[in-house]
């Protein structure tokens, strides 16, 4: 009896619960300060796309990541980030695609930069739409997706292809690897 080969990995995501997270999306320059995005309680999603990934996989990824019961509610019950309600910080993380070769890391399996940017941007948009839809259905407390909304849902994201500084307060560590 032959075993069925596993389909290739098209995307890798690492998900972490957080109490607060802050990501520098633009470094300080001569006449301006650094720019940051930040969230309170919720989830940080690090994401990396591999060669062969297309937009067809994005709806499944978004649904899975936003609906996994990984967040601990005030009552101690595990709920999804949209049920919490919690915020989401999405961080592009090409290093998740690295493989060790000798003493160096190689990233030959990662999608090209242009395709990666397109997939990342679409992923962020789908996450925003999914959480807005959940909020409209009354699933997420105050039901907002705007920054500074208090207990509402906030979606923030990093910039693709740039180095970024992350400050993270976790309530764990509580980290999961999810492959698609």
Walk me through the structure.
The protein is of the alpha+beta class and 180 residues long. It is 19% helix and 32% strand. It contains two helices and twelve strands. The protein has helices at residues 58-67, 113-136, and strands at residues 11-18, 20-26, 35-39, 42-49, 71-72, 78-79, 87-92, 99-101, 104-106, 155-157, 165-169, 175-179. The strands form four sheets. Strands 10-7-4-1-12 form a five-stranded mixed sheet, covered by helices on one side. A three-stranded antiparallel sheet has the order 3-2-11, with no helix packed on it. It has a two-stranded antiparallel sheet with strand order 5-6. Helix 1 packs across helix 2 (113-136). The protein starts with 10 loop residues before the first strand and ends with a strand.
Question: What labels describe this entry?
Answer:
180 residues, alpha+beta, 5-stranded mixed beta sheet, 12 strands, 19% helix, globular
Within the largest sheet, what's the order of strands?
A: 10-7-4-1-12
Instruction: Outline the low-pLDDT stretches.
Output: 140-151
Averaging pLDDT over every residue, what do you get? 88
How far is the first residue's CA from the last residue's CA? 26 Å
Please tally the helical runs, counting DSSP H or I stretches of 4 or more residues: 2
Number of extended strands: 12
Biggest beta-sheet profile: 5 strands, mixed
Category from helices, strands and their pairing: alpha+beta
Proportion of residues in helical segments: 10-25%
Globular, elongated, flat, extended or rod-shaped: what is the shape?
A: globular
**Over all CA atoms, what is the radius of gyration?**
17 Å
Order of SSEs = EEEEHEEEEEHEEE
Hey, roughly how much beta strand do the residues contain?
25-35%
């Amino acid at each position: 009896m032959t075993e069925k080969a596993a389909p290739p990995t098209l995307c890798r995501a690492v998900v972490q619960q957080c109490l607060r997270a802050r990501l520098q999306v633009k470094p300080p320059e001569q006449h301006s300060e650094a720019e940051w995005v930040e969230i309170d309680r919720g989830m940080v999603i690090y994401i990396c796309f591999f060669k062969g990934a297309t937009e067809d996989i994005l709806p499944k990824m978004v649904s899975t990541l936003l609906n996994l019961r990984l967040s601990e509610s005030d009552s101690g019950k595990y709920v999804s980030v949209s049920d919490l309600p919690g915020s989401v910080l999405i961080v592009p993380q090409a290093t998740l695609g690295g493989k060790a070769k000798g003493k160096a890391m190689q990233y030959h399996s990662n999608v090209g930069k242009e395709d990666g940017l397109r997939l990342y941007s679409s992923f962020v948009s789908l996450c925003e739409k999914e959480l807005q839809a959940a909020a409209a259905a009354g699933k997420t407390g105050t039901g907002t997706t705007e920054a500074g909304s208090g207990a509402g849902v906030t979606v923030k994201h990093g910039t693709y292809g740039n180095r970024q500084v992350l400050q993270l307060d976790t309530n764990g560590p509580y980290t999961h690897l999810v492959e698609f």
